[in-house]
Specification:
about 200 residues, 7 helices, single chain, alpha/beta
Length: about 200
Amino acid sequence: MKIGGNRKSLEDRTTGQDRVGGGAQVKAPLEDARAAARSWLVLGIDPGEQGAVALILAHAGCDRPQLGELVNASDRRAVRRLVAEADLVVLEGQQASPQMGVSSAFGLGRAYGALQEVVEAGARGEVVVAYPAGWRGSYGLAGGKEGKVDGIRLAGELLRSRYAVRRHDQADAVLLAWWGWRHKLLARAVQALQGAGSS
């Protein structure tokens, strides 16, 4: 299912829930609260060896996101389109590890640089770079093979479908997007509503 360009119909299905997000700062608290009272599109990008990109729809009234699109990071055309649609882009920061060979490190650096360029050129919303130690740590995910398996399971639980993601890079993209919603946009939405209530 594609979310971009069809946000209204998706929001209509969530009637009765508090649709609260976060977003650009505005001057008046009431305007801030109105800006917050909607859904948000968050894009998670895992550069990885193959890489994956996940677009989710999130609201403060929902404890789980709705998956809109899941594409390979190598599909630059799709990535450009999704970057332009997202309110927030969360790109996983990359660092070469001692376990990597020279060719693997070079390939990862090249893929990461290409994605950075697409994001910087096309993002209309905020861009956040999240490193694995921070975002994976927030989920309690370890590194290595065990952490990858746990990530796939966690993403499946989050999306209420064990078939939604089949690879660890797809799971990482979903979890990155949800991390961005929880740690960036949601906090702002709550602050906005608290400010409006106290005025």
